[in-house]
Amino acid sequence: MKLESIDLKKIRIEDQFWSKHVNLVKNTIIPYQWDAMNDRIKDAEPSRCLENFKIAAGLSKGEFYGAVFQDTDIAKWLEAVGFVLAANKDEELEKTADEVIDLIGKAQQEDGYLNTYFTIKEPKRRWKDLCEGHELYTAGHMMEAAVAYYLGTGKTKFLDIMKKNADLICETFGQEEGKVKGYPGHQEVEIGLIKLYHVTGERKYLDMAKYFIDIRGVGENYFLKEMKSDDYHLIFPEFANYDPSYSQSHMPVREQESAEGHAVRAVYMYTAMAELAYEYQDEELMKACKNLWNNIVEKRMYITGGIGSSGILERFTVDYDLPNDYCYCESCASIGLAMFALRMANITKEAQYIDVLERALYNTVLAGVALDGKSFFYVNPLEVRPETCKDRTSKEHVKPIRQKWFGVACCPPNIARTLASLGQYIYGKSENTLYINLFISNQAKIELGEDEIEVRIDSDFPAKNHFKIAFSKIAKEIKVGIRIPGYGEEYTGLINGKSVAYTVEKGYAVFMVGEDTEIEISFKAPAKYVGTNPKVSTNNGKVALVRGPQVYCLEEVDNGDGLAGIYVDTKTLPKEIQSEKLGGSIFLELQGKRIDEEDWPKNQLYAAREITYKDVTIKAVPYSYWNNRGIGEMTVWMNNQI
Q1: Domain with 460 in it: what CATH number?
Q2: Beta strand pairing status for 638-640 and 528-530?
Q3: Which of 110, 159, 361, 536 gets the highest tally of CB atoms within 10 A of its CB?
Q4: pLDDT tens readout for residues 490-541
Q5: Gene3D superfamilies in the record, alphabetically (predicted)?
C-alpha cells in the first residue's frame, strides 16, 4: 500500500525557518498576485487574466490578451487559496475566491468546454492544436485547483464545473470511433484527472489519464500528423521544425530511459506516470519512472535541485551538460521534480526521493520568490554577472533581479501553491505506520487506521540538527519511520530520553511508538565542500558549499565583484556565523585567495606574466536568498585552491 499525505486541515506549521515563507503566502503573496492578475502592479507586465474570463463570459468586450495558457495563472492562485483556507479560515479571501469561481462558471461553455483563449480568439479550433494549444494543460491546472478548493472549503461549485469539463474531455478523446486520438502537448491534465478521480471516485477520469500516457509516442507522432493538416497554423512560430522529444512524444513512455525535452512537461508527465503505475500495478511503467528518475538525479540535475540546462526551449540537453550561467532551471521544473519525488517516495517508501525533494524545496523553489513575497525568479542560474544578462544573447532569459511579474507568469502562482501545501511533504502514512520526511516544526492530528493520533515536532532545523517528536492519543503501538538524510552523520535516536536501537528500512530509522512517547533525533550535518563528477566539464576544478539541504553561494555585496577570481581553501573548515540578515540565516565564513587585479597591466587584455593572488576572507549565504540585497554578481561553484 502506498503512503498518503495528511489532510492539510489537520496540520499547523509553526517553524523557525518555514513559517516566514508559509505565512508570506497568505499575508503577502496571494494579495500581491491578486493585484497582478487585476493589473494593479505599477511597472509590471499586465496579466489581464481575469479580464479574459469576463470577455469569455460575455460580461465585457475586448480581445484575448496574453499567452494561450493565461487561464492557469488564476487556476494556480485558486489552488493556493484552497490550501490556505484548509489551514486558516478567512471569510474575505473565500468570498473573493467564490466570486472568481462564479466568473469561471459563467465563462464555461454549455457543453463543459472551458478555455478563454479558444472561446474568445479561435472558437472553431477547439482540440485542433493539441501540440501548443495548451487546452488540456489549462484544464489540468483548473482540475487541481478545483480539488484543492473543495478539500479546503467543502464547497462543490468549482468541482462541479471541472467535472463537467472532465466529462467533455472523456467524451472527446479515446480510441473509439469518432473520438480524437491525440494527447496533450504540455502534460498536466493527467495529474488533474487523477486528483479528480481520488475525490470523486469516478474511474473514467483515471482511465482517461492512463489513455493519455499509454498513447503518447505510439505509432505516427500525433503532433507531426496534426501539423500536416490544411487548416493547421502555429501558435508559436519557433516550433516550425518540431522535435517530438521536446514534448516527450518521441517514443512510448515505457521505453524512455533519459529525461528529454521541456523539463516542466517531463516531470509533470513522470508524476502522473508514477501514480498510474501504482493504481494499475504496472511494473513496466514503474520501471520507466525509476529509469527516468535515475537519469535526472545522476546525470542531469543541478546541485540546487534545478533541472533544465538550456534556455532555448527550456529543456534537458545531454548527460552531464550543466552550465551554470545560462541554464534555465525554471522554478516550475523544480516544483514538478518535488511532485514526482513525493509520488515515488510514497510508492516505494524510499528516503532517497525525499532527499532530492528537500534539496529542491530549500534551494530552487525558495529562490524563486523574494523574502518580501513581491518579486520572482522564473529562471534560477547558479552564476550571474548582471551586465552579461542582455537581450538577444545566450543569457537573455537570465534576470539579475527578481521581476514584479511576467507576461508568462506560470512560476509565481506555482510557488504560491507549493508553499501553501508544504504540509503534504512532511508526513507519509499508511494504516499503522507514520513516516516523517521533513524536519519542520508542526502540530498534527493524523488518522492511522481507525485512530487519530497527535504528533508534535519541535525543530530549529536547518540551523540545528536536533529535534523532538512527541506522540499522544495512541491507542495501540504504531510504527514510525524517521528519515535519515543522506547528508546526516552520526544519526542517533532517543525514546523518552533513553538511547534505543533502531532498524533501518530504505533510509528511514524505524521505531515502535506507544502512548506519550517522545523521540529525540540528533545528527551532524556540518558545512562541507563538494565536487562534481569530472564529466561535468563546467565544474572541473571547482567546489560548492553545502550545509544540510542548503546550497550556499557567494554574492558581490559580501565579497566584491570578480567572484570568478576567488579560490577557496577547502582544507580550512567553514566558520558558521548566525546573522540577523536574510531571515536570520547562518552565513559561512571561508578562507582563500583571489586574483590581484591591481597587479595586472592596465589596458592589456592579454599578457605573458605570472598571476598574483592575495589572501581573503570570503562570506557565503544560502542560495535561496541571493539577490535579496540588491543586484550583483553571484556564484555557487568556486575555484578550488590547490
Answers
A1: 2.60.40
A2: unpaired
A3: 361
A4: 999 999 999 988 999 999 999 999 988 999 999 999 999 999 999 999 999 9
A5: 1.50.10.10
